[in-house]
Amino acid sequence: MGKNVLIISTSLRHQSSSELLAKETERGAKDAGHNVEFVTLKDKDIKFCKGCLACQRLKHCVIDDDANAVTEKIKNADVVVWATPVYYYEMSGQMKTVIDRANPLFVSDYKFKEVYLITTSADADENVVQTVINGINGWIACFDGVKFCGYVSGAGVNDTSDLEKNPQLMQKAYNLGKNI
Asked: Is the N end or the C end of the chain the one with fewer CB atoms within 10 Å?
């Protein structure tokens, strides 16, 4: 039986390039026999963490919005794949907000053990992804037994038309999912 894979698309743009790469990853993971759930933050109401730390005692956030459902999905997945556009050489603010709001996971019996990353950036420098990897590794470091397993970097991708010109990048995203 396949793994339970959660793919979280953090771009708020309709048909964004990072989301299209995430969809290719989803296709690859499904073709490999995994159970895949795809979540987009586009239609979600997610507020900022207040830093109250009540979640550490309650094991859920006191803010009643969509972040609690996303956190529960992360908790129950075997694999988490984050997809984000790179803004100012870092993960999107939406992604960081969801990570902050997922603080109840720290005291939970989380299942996820593998984390992957998909990024797109207008900057064509392949090293741009490293700042996002550093950020995601900071989150991963808070969870015993969880490891960063790989990424696909869409450096130099301004919009979806750039993906149409780069079938190799689409294939990399598919292969990421296929090899989970």
From this structure: N
Dihedral angle, C-alpha 133, 75, 40, 58, nearest 10 °: -110
Which tokens hold the place of 22? 């995430």
For residue 25, how many C-alpha atoms fall within 13 Å in the half-sphere facing its CB? 31
Render 22-60 in DSSP notation, one character per residue: HHHHHHHHHHTT-EEEEEESTT---PPP----HHHHHSS
Q: Evaluate if residue 6 carries a pLDDT over 90.
A: yes
Query: Which neighbouring-strand residues pair with 116?
Result: 81, 150
Catalogue all structural domains in the chain, each as residue range(s) with its CATH number.
Answer: 4-178 (3.40.50.360)
Quote the pTM value.
Answer: 0.97
d(CA 55, CA 107): 9
